[in-house]
Fold this protein.
Amino acid sequence: MIATLTLNPSIDYVMKCTKIIPGETNRTEGEQIYPGGKGINVSIMLKRLGIDSQCIAVKAGVTGELLESLLYQQGLSPTLISLKGGGFTRINVKLQGDGITELNAKGPSLTPAVMESIFHELEGLQKDDLLVIAGRFPEDETSREIFSFLGQLKKKGVKLVADSSGPALQKLMEIGPYLAKPNLREFKELTGISMTDWENISRAACQFWQHGDSQSFGAEHILLSMGGDGAILFWDRENIFFAEVFDEETVNTVGAGDCMLAGCLAAYLRDGEPEEILRLAVACGSAAAFSEWIPEKPLPSENVISKRLHI
Ligand SMILES: Nc1ncnc2c1ncn2[C@@H]1O[C@H](COP(=O)(O)OP(=O)(O)OP(=O)(O)O)[C@@H](O)[C@H]1O
Ligand SMILES: [Mg+2]
């Protein structure tokens, strides 16, 4: 069983405009509406790979109702926790013109009642279930409660999958997730390296890669994504692989990391070997980078060029 958690989901309103002039009335050439949020993206991509997940997210107000119907349209049966007493699920505006300008809204604050319902849902997770924790965390007391709860889940044997950044990623590393998927920026922040040659990357990865019981800080497996420069999977000492990405025209790389994570988890759930896990991850990530939104299917993973690395 696999679950994803999205604390602050969104409605993503994508507006296409050739030119945006601040302070003027700008007209669009078309618009699209999508359900948004990192955990939600992972659940949708998993569904497209034929894997059902429990998609747990918070909804609020009328936009929360819209989010729910958009998720059903994607074939999900989400577990939505209602935030009562004001506020609404945020709408993030993405202006697609010369590049993408994003206006990401703050979203509603979580109440103690909502937190209780979230924990109640998560309590249903059993040993060896996977829980994807993706995206930002609230900048208040709530986060402390969440981390402490995640620590309890880990003790119970739930496998945490961390795709976050900044202080939240640090905290998750203290808990010790089963898998972490930093991008290069997040990896640099976490390890403090500035040079990204193999020697520096491998040395830094070892700082937060748990081998055996000797190290308490870090993840058991690390999937490092480097945008168009490929990806490295640190599975265990004997299984470290690099993969190149596909070379096509990129359309939208936002969310490519989430789709990549879904591919990685899908291959893992099908008992794939580490190299196959990396190949499907890259095939999904690249397919996402070449699509407007979450791709219908991955690129052929057998065409991914990969090689074994040694440290
Ligand atoms: N320019 C590109 N060309 C081909 N593939 C790409 C490109 N950019 C991203 N990808 C694919 O997507 C994967 C994840 O990309 P990236 O490292 O940008 O993730 P991320 O920053 O976590 O993304 P997200 O916006 O979802 O958080 C890459 O490993 C690759 O498979
Ligand atoms: Mg990411």
Remarks:
- Residues 163, 183, 257 surround magnesium ion (ligand 2) (CB under 6 Å).
- Residues 42 and 232 are 19 Å apart (CA to CA).
- The chain has one domain: 2-309.
